[in-house]
Amino acid sequence: MIDIQEERPDYLLAKVNLMEANLNNADKFRDELVNLLNKYGKRVVLDLSKITYMDSSFLGALVSALKHAIANSSDVILIHLKKDIHDLFALIRLDKVFKIHKNLEAFTTAG
Amino acid sequence: MQIITGAKEFIFLNALPALVPSVKHVLDHTGKCIKDTDYLNDILFRVKSVVTELFTNACKHSGTETVKLTVDINDDYISITKIDDGHPFNRELLVHPEGEKKLLAYDVMHNLYALTDGENTIKFIAEESDNEQPDINNITEHFGLLIITKCANEFLYHYDRLTGQNVFTVKISLIG
What are the start-end ranges of the H helices in B85-130? Predict the structure, then answer.
């Protein structure tokens, strides 16, 4: 479900290999992301470009994983969100909680 | 602006694999009816989010085999009504004094209230806090009702004591 794309000294780039991110896969996704954070001990940059549907269960899983990351001095950064998905984050103000960038270049530029 | 008005009833399987196809079905119908609307993309985003959460909620909580959904479009509003025979949403809220707000959920960014609005009916209201840098540890992980409430111009829950049915009604404005 989460494919590692590239490991860099200060972050791990991974792609969420799902079109429909919902109740069906939210718990498994959270467990995979938490395992990545634990195993690599660095920030995870998640490419969400494939996701066209996301529900509240998946948002809850993302927030749960972010809490785990922050508690371990790490972070989860989101890139390549489709407009609807970005609008969903903005609707419930999760764009103030997650670092969201247009693409990897924008993330690396911002640091 | 040309809108195809009228009501259409959908009955979907209340099962996880049916969730996204059901949402697509409702979106296709709605898109065809309001394709010339000024705020088409914004309205379809709201419909998509609301229907997704209504179905997710049904999968999680109602325990029924099917979900009945009606999409009723007039010149001003889309009304989306979901009816099921599952467990009542929250009996305690239904006996709350008329017109009184009860805090349903909160975190550092939102308060979600239930306002009694007639017999066996509550209206959901979301209020934002002015916290611009919220602490992640003080944020909820449950967003379903909040998403629907913030997408809707009006979001009501009614418990029909005669039939034992739960009726969720969401109104989304077509005129901005």
Answer: 91-94
Separation in Å, CA of B126 to nearest CA in chain A: 10
- Same domain assignment for residues B42 and B116: no
Q: Which two tokens stand for residue B44?
A: 């379809």
Give how far B44 is from chain A: nearest CA, Å: 10
* Secondary structure letter of residue B61 according to DSSP: I
Number of domains in chain B: 2
Q: Is the pLDDT of residue B1 over 70?
A: no
Looking at the fold, whether B74 and B95 belong to one and the same domain comes out as no
**Residues A65, A63: Cα–Cα separation, whole Å:** 5
Co-location of B67 and B38 in the same domain: yes
In a domain, B103, yes or no: yes
Is B144 among the domain residues?
no
| Domain ranges, residue B82 | 6-89+157-173
Structure ipTM over 0.90, yes or no: yes
CB contact under 8 A, B128 and A60: no
Query: On the CB side of A56, how many CA atoms lie within 13 Å of its CA?
Result: 25
CA A84 – CA B132 distance, rounded (Å): 22
Rounded Cα–Cα distance for residues B54 and B82 (Å): 7
- Whether B141 sits inside 8 A of A97 (CB atoms) is no
Q: Which residue has the higher pLDDT, B17 or B92?
A: B17
Q: A2-110 — its CATH code?
A: 3.30.750.24
